[in-house]
């Protein structure tokens, strides 16, 4: 009887331990530090990427950066010519104030740090939010912050133009940013399904193009075409981010036969992975075709803007023509202009 009593006591103890394990050990990590997760385990932190602003604001930043790089790439090529052109991963800001020269790097670094904080910190209650998708988004911005920091340090040390040394490392880091973005998008913890998944697959194509073009500029820094393609790919990435925000999170722009999945409909984790749900297979197929057309139109618009920036004539740009000195003793002048005798000048050593 004593043995049976001890056995029943042990069984009761184990059942209590199992209950505690299920309540604490199997609870998401982010919920242990954030009270808001008590009833909403799937709620995203900060300005989540799965929102309109979460796509529009990064897209706008990418688009501005792409236009800025295209303008400066074309300007450098016109000023230096084909023989002296060298592609750059960032461009100085023209300003009489010296500290504004590195404005692009300052903005990139600030944007990255703020984005990381927004992804990992629940600002109303200042608690950590360590959801897998938030960690993945923050990691993308982390690589961007590392690149901006190294580029800033290289410029401060005066070794920016050292293409074979620190300059090459900065170019490689720029390619690494797109490489990590592609890696984390491809193996995202939230497997985007349906129409949203197709938009993200097209986004991966754009990021892959940015990766290839940036890596090519590190190997071929003197190629103007490669530098322009890289800038255009950054612009396209920004345009496509904004297009995703409008197409997936603006109810009036949702394709016919489909509807947006609101927060009140998120009864499972699968619901969070698709911003748009289509009622029939035909509607889903039509929405996919429209996404392909939007991607093609965005690409055409980017190339039109890029071609215009490459072909436009700057009113303040002077055309320099190489002058050839006449042979020694040859008379210079023509017509009624008084003739002048040009004699060779010996250099005094």
TrEMBL record:
It is found in: Membrane. Keywords: Membrane, Transmembrane, Transmembrane helix. GO terms for cellular component: membrane. It comes from the Eukaryota. The chain crosses the membrane at residues 52-71, 105-126, 138-156, 163-185, 205-227, 234-254, 295-311. It is a multi-pass membrane protein. Belongs to the TMEM45 family. PANTHER family: OS02G0167775 PROTEIN, PROTEINASE INHIBITOR I4, SERPIN (DUF716)-RELATED. This is Transmembrane protein 45B. It comes from Setaria italica (Foxtail millet).
């Amino acid at each position: 009887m004593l043995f049976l009593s001890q056995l029943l006591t042990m069984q009761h103890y184990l059942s209590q331990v199992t209950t505690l394990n299920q309540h604490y050990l199997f609870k998401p990590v982010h919920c242990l530090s954030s009270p808001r997760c008590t009833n909403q385990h799937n709620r995203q932190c900060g300005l989540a990427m799965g929102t309109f602003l979460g796509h529009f604001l990064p897209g706008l930043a990418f688009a501005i950066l792409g236009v800025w790089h295209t303008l400066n790439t074309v300007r450098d090529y016109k000023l230096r010519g084909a023989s002296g052109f060298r592609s750059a991963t960032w461009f100085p800001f023209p300003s009489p104030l010296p500290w504004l020269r590195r404005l692009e790097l300052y903005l990139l670094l600030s944007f990255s740090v703020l984005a990381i904080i927004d992804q990992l910190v629940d600002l109303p209650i200042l608690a950590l939010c360590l959801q897998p998708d938030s960690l993945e988004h923050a990691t993308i911005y982390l690589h961007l912050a590392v690149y901006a920091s190294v580029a800033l340090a290289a410029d401060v040390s005066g070794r920016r133009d050292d293409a074979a040394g620190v300059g090459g490392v900065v170019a490689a880091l720029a390619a690494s940013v797109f490489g990590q973005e592609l890696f984390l998008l491809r193996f995202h913890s939230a497997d985007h399904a349906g129409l949203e998944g197709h938009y993200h697959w097209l986004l991966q194509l754009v990021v892959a193009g940015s990766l290839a073009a940036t890596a090519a500029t590190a190997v071929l820094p003197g190629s103007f075409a490669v530098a322009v393609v890289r800038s255009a790919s950054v612009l396209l990435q920004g345009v496509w981010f904004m297009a995703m925000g409008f197409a997936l999170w603006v109810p009036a722009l949702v394709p016919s036969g489909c509807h947006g999945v609101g927060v009140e409909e998120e009864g499972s984790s699968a619901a969070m992975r698709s911003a748009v749900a289509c009622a029939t297979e035909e509607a889903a197929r039509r929405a996919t075709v429209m996404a392909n057309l939007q991607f093609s139109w965005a690409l055409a618009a980017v190339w039109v803007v890029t071609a215009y920036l490459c072909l436009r004539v700057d009113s303040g740009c002077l055309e320099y023509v190489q002058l050839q000195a006449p042979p020694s003793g040859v008379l210079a002048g023509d017509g009624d202009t008084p003739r002048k005798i040009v004699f060779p000048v010996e250099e005094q050593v």
